[in-house]
Amino acid sequence: MSVKYIPVQWNRFKSFYDLVVLAMIMGFLWVFVHLVPGVLPHDPAINPQIHNMRAFGSCAFFLLTAILLIGPLARLNSRFLPLLYNRRHLGVLTCFVALTHATLVIRWYFVFSPTDRYVALLNTNTAYTQLLGFPFEAFGIFALLCLIILATTSHDFWLKFLTPPVWKSLHYLIYPAYAAVVAHIGLGAFQDQQNPTFGLWMVLCVSAVVLLHLAAARHERMISDPSALGPSDGPWQALFPADDIDEGRAKVARISNGERVAVFRNNGRLSAIANACAHQNGPLGEGQIIDCFVTCPWHGFQYDVTNGRSPEPFTERVATYNIRLRDGVVEVNERANPPGTPVEPLDIPVRRPGNEA
Fold first, then answer.
1. What share of the chain is helix, strand, coil (3-state, %, to 5)?
2. Domain with CATH 2.102.10.10 in the chain
3. Tens digit of pLDDT for each residue in 285-313?
């Protein structure tokens, strides 16, 4: 954590993450530029400049696909969570790749334009009323603007300035950006594409994104549907057996008002706080407790699970919840306490053979 707007907890894993992504990008570009022309020749042949711009454009598309696959994969299998925690880095690199693609396009097609190259880009093709020959450049420009916005607002200053709900809503632009890229490719490169290989890859990528998001949504409904939990007793909602919570960890449930509650087990006692981190709504329930503090796995923000407060001098706070045990089942009061409200941890009775109390 930091009281300044600087990168939070840069560590060896994040450095390794970025190096691996850079190596994969360079490897993809090398294969596309040096190997693909011989394996999948283009008829008629295209010049190296066009091939290079297509290499960066294709790389940006596959990077965007990877970004959108990481989220549902992490929801379906916790092994993918480390990829999710540093996804912002991947997004910034994708923006640079897309900018390189756009720069190569403008420098090749409009370098000798009698008018300003950017004006020529917008005015060269205006056939918006027909499908064949539709100005696919408009979709590319929109997608690039979205990526620039996402990359420039990825810094914590904008998160604090815009507030987490607005910042999170803004970053949903990744979905229309991806749709625009698909339209940009479909109405552009595919119109003169003789080899169907890249088209098949694009169909597979888009299908994977759609199907994995549907599978993740179904999975989330199944594991956090309030109707699948126990019966309610006034404001009290039955969640799960206390024995299901591992020491130093949490179990998360979505209660009937739609909020997610993380119930932690620390030194044999239970505490419940809101699952969403005050920093970027990161999943606190996926963090581990050390000295009564849970660390958000996204960016390292910490909270005392007994009061929802960050350690001084930090001021972040999350809501706490009152909980109780009934027949070994954890029940939560759906009425959240104000953020930072202390709640006495709940003792878990020791179960002995022949004693169900």
1. 50, 15, 35
2. 230-347
3. 888 888 889 988 877 789 999 999 999 88
